[in-house]
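It is worth pausing here to work through a concrete case rather than discussing structure prediction in the abstract. The textbook approach is simple: state the sequence, then state the predicted structure, then interpret. We follow exactly that order.
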Amino acid sequence: MRTHNQWITRAETEADIPAVRGIVLAAFDTPYEADLVDALRDDVSWIEGLSVVSVGANGSPVGHALLTRCHIDDTPALCLAPVSVLPEHQKTGAGSAAIRAALGAARELGEYYVTVLGHPAYYPRFGFGRASAHGIGVTLDVPDEAMMALTLDATRPLPSGTVRYAAPFGV
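Step two, the predicted structure:
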């Protein structure tokens, strides 16, 4: 367990699975992302310890961040998706705490590269930058500024190539 600001973060446990599904369902307009998390749990892209929850004072999860295996061409990398917070806890740092904890856990596991498709005003605070600046692209039609990447080790520059997502993403 780690503390990030007022939030305690930890790896998801089996007992957290229903709560995580509830968080993801509450955070998004459709069940797609919650179904994606469930499918990723059963996929080879799942890495134990990289599904992280932020918990409230009562110990119940209120936020969640997930990193799973992807590749940049043939180079192993991680994909940050989805990040979810219960609506009543949004804008409190619960999501940021889960992201920071997940990135820290990935670094401890010896991972180097992380990609995210997300809001370009939010993810740079974690060190993400425009992926295209490093020659990284995707096969999806997305705004260039929304596809971002990060190296977890400054001595290992980001590789160039096309991001290949885990099968449950459907791309």
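Step three, interpretation. Helices lie at 17-27, 32-41, 94-108. The longest strand covers residues 61-72.
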